[in-house]
Design brief:
Blueprint (H helix, E strand, L loop, with lengths): L1 H36 L8 H16 L2 H7 L1 H8 L5 H25 L3 H9 L4 H36 L5 H11 L4 H29 L1
Helix pairs in contact: 1-2, 1-5, 1-7, 1-8, 2-5, 4-5, 5-7, 6-7, 7-8, 7-9, 8-9
Length: 211
């Protein structure tokens, strides 16, 4: 059992780490475009912002378990299979990207408008303002948001395990639920709690250091 628990924990960490990287990168790209094109952005464009805003809201409205089943053909196309920890990365990334985009948009929008205007007065270009001013100013908040995304993905990875995604969720269902081994269920929950504490602790420590 301990061997299987360690393997399940490794699968969960693999899913969460890879999907966090992909969703943060894609969500950050969306957030930058939304910040640039919003009504008080550097390059206001109502059509582009409205389209991205609608897309983000639509994707966020899907419960993860439904989204995971709905995109099985896409998962098979990308990963070559619809089961296992590698296949779960596809729906996890798609589910977390709009969430990451929204919270990172909030972080960038919280940057003092006076700092942005000062950079513009010196003739800085739009991307220079975003990556040279807004991102560094918002970085402590972004770090905390990355921790939130990772923890959210940890919960989703447990749900993915219930439908063949592997990891601690799969272990808990296979042994804790189907075979009524409550000790396995308890160890799976404790492992998830420990991972959450580590992620949040690291995120908070980096945030305090950057502040």
């Amino acid at each position: 059992m301990w061997h299987e628990l360690a393997a399940a924990l490794q699968e969960t960490l693999y899913m969460v780490t890879v999907s966090t990287v992909f969703s943060v990168l894609s969500g950050f790209a969306l957030a930058v475009v939304m910040v640039l094109t919003c009504a008080r952005g550097l390059r206001p464009n109502a059509a582009v912002y409205a389209t991205l805003d609608l897309l983000v809201n639509l994707l966020r409205s899907f419960p993860f378990i439904i989204l995971m089943i709905a995109i099985i053909p896409l998962t098979r196309f990308v990963a070559g299979t619809s089961i296992g920890s590698t296949a779960s990365i596809v729906p996890l990334t798609i589910a977390a990207t709009p969430f990451a985009a929204r919270i990172m948009e909030g972080s960038l929008m919280e940057v003092d408008a006076g700092v942005v205007e000062a950079a513009r007065s010196f003739g800085a270009r739009d991307l220079r303002i975003v990556f040279g001013v807004m991102v560094p100013e918002a970085m402590p908040s972004i770090v905390l948001n990355i921790a939130v995304v990772a923890i959210n993905l940890l919960g989703c990875s447990a749900m993915a395990g219930a439908v063949g995604g592997g990891g601690l969720g799969d272990l808990a269902v296979k042994y804790g639920y189907n075979r009524f081994q409550t000790d396995v269920m308890a160890y799976s929950v404790l492992a998830l709690v420990a991972v959450v504490q580590v992620i949040q602790g690291v995120g908070t420590a980096i945030y305090r250091r950057m502040r």
